[in-house]
Amino acid sequence: MLIKPIFLNFWGEQAIAILDDALAIWKQKYESIFGILVQDPSEFQNGVIWNTVTGIIRVIEATGVSLLITFFFYGIIKSTIDYRDLIRNPRLVLMQFVRFFFAKFFVMNATDVMLSIISVVRHILAQINPATPTMEYSIPNDLRTALETADWGAGMGAFAASLVGTAMIWLLSIILVVVVYGRFFKIFLLSAIAPIPLAGFASEATSLIGRNFLKSYIAECLRGVLMLTACVIFSAFTTVTPEWAATSPGGMTWDYVGNVTLQMLLLVIVVKGSDRIVKEIFSL
User: Fold this and answer.
1) Contact indicator for 224, 34 with CB cutoff of 8 Å
2) Handedness of CA 132, 133, 137, 138 (dihedral sign)
3) For 45, left (φ over 0), alpha (ψ -120 to 50), or beta?
4) Model-level pTM greater than 0.85?
5) pLDDT (tens digit, 9 = 90+) per residue, 18-58?
6) Closest of 34, 31, 32, 223 to residue 129, by C-alpha
7) 3-state secondary structure of 150
8) Is residue 255 part of a domain?
């Protein structure tokens, strides 16, 4: 007599266990991205990656200095045309030298310049992070009760829904983490090559190279602000009680899985599209 009740709600209990594990995975990945977004790149992975980046910067500095001189003379030739302009407008030459020393400062101190930009953005992120609500995704009590008392047929439907939901949640959590890590990787990449585009400030003719690089770098850093803001807003969705369109355990599970995965998909789309938003803001 005890065997029948045990197997009667077997699939319902399995559905609960699978959904609990899936939501735990999402919560772990979701909470981990907060630490990534507000972390100083120089401290990421105990500073090993940033040390590699600074090593590349030191190697590329020589190329940056060479380009600095090349761009400087290119600017002189392009702006003066002939030697008489040097006599008629010496201020033009003076401005070229000012540009040269300005660009030299950027090239020789590329690491400090990048860290200063990162520091400003991290200050903004720190102001947003304390407002982050706690991630509270969990199976609603009425759905849990329905699954615990589900018969064989309804339990199997709920079990199928939980498998589909787990696959979707796992996939979306991986995409979310990859996108956030991808931003970090791009910051490292841009930092490593910084001396080359910064040399463009050596002349007015090539200054667009340096300006575009700085705009791209600032935009990539500010992309983290958009990501964190999107996550904070998303956290509010987890406190909303779902409305059931079905009354059976299987139908309720499908409703819940659909609602949860739709919210998660929306977050992933917004986070992934943050690069497009910053490009529009900075006209890149």
Assistant:
1) no
2) positive
3) left
4) no
5) 888 888 888 888 878 877 888 887 787 788 888 898 889 88
6) 34
7) coil
8) yes
- Residue 1 confidence (pLDDT): 43
Write out the residue range of the structural domain in which residue 70 sits: 9-282
Higher pLDDT, 197 or 73: 197
Count CB atoms within 10 A of the CB of residue 104.
Answer: 19
State residue 140 phi and psi, 5-degree precision.
-60, 150
- Look-up: residue for tokens 């010496």? 90
pLDDT for position 190 = 92
Is residue 270 in a domain? yes
Q: Is the pLDDT of residue 86 over 60?
A: no
Q: Residues 31, 154: contact at Cβ < 8 Å?
A: no
Q: What is the Cα–Cα distance from 124 to 133, expressed in whole angstroms?
A: 17
> With contact defined as beta carbons under 8 Å apart, do 226 and 277 qualify?
yes
d(CA 218, CA 190): 10
- Minimal CA–CA distance to 155: which of 251, 255, 242? 251
Sequential DSSP letters for 121-189: HHHHHHHHGGGPPP------HHHHHHHHT--HHHHHHHHHHHHHHHHHHHHHHHHHHHHHHHHHHHHHH
- The residue behind tokens 């001396």 is 195
Cα(89)–Cα(87) distance, rounded to whole angstroms?
6
Q: Residue 35 has which token pair?
A: 């630490």
**Nearest residue to 144 (alpha-carbon basis) of 264, 243, 8, 19:** 19
214, 206, 244: which is closest to 69 by C-alpha?
Answer: 206
Q: Please indicate, yes or no, if residue 3 is contained in any of the structural domains.
A: no
Does a structural domain hold residue 2?
A: no
User: What gap in Å lies between CA 34 and CA 130, rounded to an integer?
Assistant: 11
Nearest to 271 by CA among 160, 166, 182, 207: 182
pLDDT at 82 over 60: no
- How many independent structural domains does the chain possess? 1
